[in-house]
């Protein structure tokens, strides 16, 4: 927008003052006639409200046309041309809990695959399996069918190293192929972390999340499962509640968002929300034509009001 052009709006209050002055002067002149019956014959009485409305519409037209002249802009969501998404799936033993049918891990795989299918074809996708041992199953690739195969291959393991999972995801992002047209311009990256448990091994998740924030890589955390989840390990039943606080802290430190999902249906909705966040970016767009259209509409209405003042109604 060109703010200097908006200085033309100074004329609006001057026009309003001139209109009020002219109206008061007209009223004073009308009071000179003691017998107004002859005046009504010579000069037909005009509708006051139609006259005021026509003036208001004219002023609105001037305001919106001046705004259009200033070339206003607005912020809109536009699809990203390319990006890299790293999907980190918790494969610890707690993901065997059956509070989400058929179990947390299988349901997570199903929702993650659907998420990958709905991502744009130009998006590089990587998969990280996270337990006590963390590994990049697939580096960033455009072959989304390969990603689906990798997700299906994830198996349960011992322990949960969330901090290591985040660090590994950051390394995966660095492996994303460069855009030939812009080799020095890295594609936007994001991490989608699905976990149900508390960190039990490796480095601090908070420290890893802070590093992601410094690199401007948001982490979208999904706290998956219910508070009543349990697993049977070595003949003992152990509760495996979701650590919502940790997931929220990781998201906050990285500049991402946190979500909760206690069922496959909820998880699918969460992935749709994340897809909208990752798939779009903010951009400025000029909206001059919109304001010009408003100005034209007000001008037409003002013209109709002026015509109605000159018409003799029965």
UniProtKB/TrEMBL annotation:
Protein name: VWA domain-containing protein
Residue stretches spanning the membrane: 6-24, 291-311
Keyword Transit peptide: no
Keywords associated with the record: Cell membrane, Membrane, Transmembrane, Transmembrane helix
Xref: InterPro entries: Aerotolerance_reg_N, UPF0353/GerABKA_families, VWF_A, vWFA_dom_sf
Residues in VWFA domain copies: 84-274
PANTHER family with a match to the protein in the record: LEUCINE ZIPPER PROTEIN 4, SPORE GERMINATION PROTEIN
Species whose genome carries this gene: Microlunatus ginsengisoli
């Amino acid at each position: 927008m060109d703010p200097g052009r908006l200085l033309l709006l100074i004329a609006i209050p001057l026009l309003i003052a001139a209109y009020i002055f002219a109206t008061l002067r007209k009223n004073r002149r009308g009071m000179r006639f003691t017998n107004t019956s002859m005046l009504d014959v010579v000069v037909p009485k005009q509708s006051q409200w139609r006259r005021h409305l026509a003036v208001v519409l004219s002023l609105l037209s001037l305001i919106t046309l001046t705004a259009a002249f200033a070339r206003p802009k607005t912020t809109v969501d536009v699809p990203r041309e390319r990006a890299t998404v790293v999907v980190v799936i918790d494969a610890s033993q707690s993901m065997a809990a059956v509070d989400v049918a058929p179990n947390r891990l299988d349901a997570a795989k199903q929702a993650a695959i659907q998420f990958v299918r709905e991502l744009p074809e130009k998006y590089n996708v990587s998969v990280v399996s996270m337990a006590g041992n963390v590994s990049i199953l697939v580096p960033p690739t455009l072959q989304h069918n390969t990603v689906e195969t990798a997700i299906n291959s994830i198996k349960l393991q011992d322990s949960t190293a969330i901090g290591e999972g985040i660090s590994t995801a950051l390394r995966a992002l660095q492996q994303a192929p460069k855009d030939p047209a812009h080799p020095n311009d890295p594609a936007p990256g994001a991490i989608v972390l699905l976990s149900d448990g508390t960190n039990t091994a490796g480095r601090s998740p908070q420290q890893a999340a802070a590093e992601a924030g410094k690199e401007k890589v948001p982490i979208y955390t999904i706290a998956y499962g219910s508070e009543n989840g349990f697993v049977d390990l070595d003949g003992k039943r152990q509760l495996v509640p979701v650590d919502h606080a940790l997931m929220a802290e990781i998201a906050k430190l990285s500049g991402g968002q946190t979500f909760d999902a206690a069922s496959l249906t909820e998880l699918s909705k969460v992935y749709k929300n994340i897809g909208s966040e990752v798939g779009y970016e903010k951009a400025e767009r000029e909206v001059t034509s919109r304001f010009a259209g408003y100005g034209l509409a007000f001008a037409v209405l003002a013209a109709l009001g002026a015509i109605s003042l000159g018409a003799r109604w029965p």
